[in-house]
Amino acid sequence: MKTNAYAAQNVTIPLAPFIFERRELDKHDVQIEILYCGVCQSDLHTVRSEWNSTTYPCVPGHEIIGRVTNVGAKVHKFKEGDTVGVGCLVDSCLTCANCKENLEQFCENGTIWTYNSPDKHNGGITYGGYSESIVVDKEFVLKIPKNLDLAATAPLLCAGITTYSPLRYHNVTKGQKVGVVGLGGLGHIGVKLAKALGAYVVVFTTSANKVEDALRLGADEVVNSKNEDEMQKHLNSFHFILDTVSAQHNINAYLLLLRRDGNLTQVGVPPDPLLLSVGSLIFGRRSMSGSLIGGIKETRFIKSTTFNRLRLSGSLIGGIKETQEMLDFCGKHNITADIELIPIQNINEAYDRLVKSDVKYRFVIDMASLKQA
Looking at the chain, which residues constitute the CATH 3.40.50.720 domain(s)? Predict the structure, then answer.
């Protein structure tokens, strides 16, 4: 099936119109007309081969909202006309121990990511959501709550589950004190989710112009992380901190804000290793972990053993079941991303702006614009 898209042909050429063949509908498949696709930081990193793992041509996009146009003979959960989503995963073996535990992102036989991953159906690689349609196994299609704005829901398929998964894993709940470091594409959703879970939410930022926005998004308090006096007031007090910063920063300053047995989860990926003082963890039995979006398969985690139950660990996005749980939670609490809607013709400009953090807070492509391309 011929499909129009935007693709990068190599590391130096900007994204441009591209035509490729989608697979024909199988009995377990759902065919989807793509309405909106979010622009993720990992799209930019992959297109520009900043992780040195890109296969070209590359069609990015794993924050997909669309309408079902056809279903296979064995598909009963979805029907033509349904509004659905596709996130970071489009396939796995579904039979290994991890898949059976709803942890498809850890498939022992190889998770298939939405783009730049081996395509077991067509050969070659998978092509993502910067395209007019997609064909996906029914097990990897998600139901979208009817009350949510569709364009603003798209980033939940990656940024939403990236922040929701660690909040749920670490049992953030009413009455707890939660910090969110950085107020960008991930951080602004993290604030909304933590607040909806009942936490007292503190945003850490170095930008004075983000204070008003943080409060609007639901933060109870905003701290200038450059102000030592403001930071000192919060020593040993947080149950959980979500660090969304992808630039180099002093991670130890935030670890010291955790109370005994508190956890800091890093979801931003700085370009260089963060300097970690293990004393920040040992005193207070604190822990640090990672939770990453799909596609960052080459990121190196710290491997270490020490005493006093020091724990450093890493994880990927949530599985399909948890992603559906996140969408249902967002539907219940009317949570979506703050977005700027763009035509696909502006995608290269959007990438340049993304590098400069010049967006509040996520770009989403109106895929109807692809017809004009």
Answer: 159-315
pLDDT at 3 over 70: yes
Beta strand 2-7 with 312-315 is unpaired
Q: What is the pLDDT of residues 221-273, one digit of tens each?
A: 999 999 999 999 999 999 999 999 988 899 999 999 999 999 999 998 877 88
Pick among 3.40.50.300, 3.90.180.10, 3.90.1200.10, 3.10.350.10: CATH of 2-158+338-372: 3.90.180.10
Write down the pLDDT at residue 126: 96
Q: Which residue has the tokens 């399909």?
A: 320
Q: Report the DSSP pairing between strands 29-38 and 133-137.
A: antiparallel
Q: What letter would DSSP give residue 7? A: E
Overall residue count recorded for the chain in this entry: 373
Of the listed ranges 60-64, 247-251, 340-344, 367-371, the least confidently predicted one is 247-251
DSSP one-letter string for 262-325: EEEEE-S--SS-----THHHHTTT-EEEEE--TT--SPPPP----STT--EEEE----HHHHHH
SS3 content of the chain, % helix, strand, coil (to 5): 25, 25, 45
pTM of the predicted structure, to 2 decimals: 0.90
Q: Which CATH class is domain 159-315?
A: alpha beta
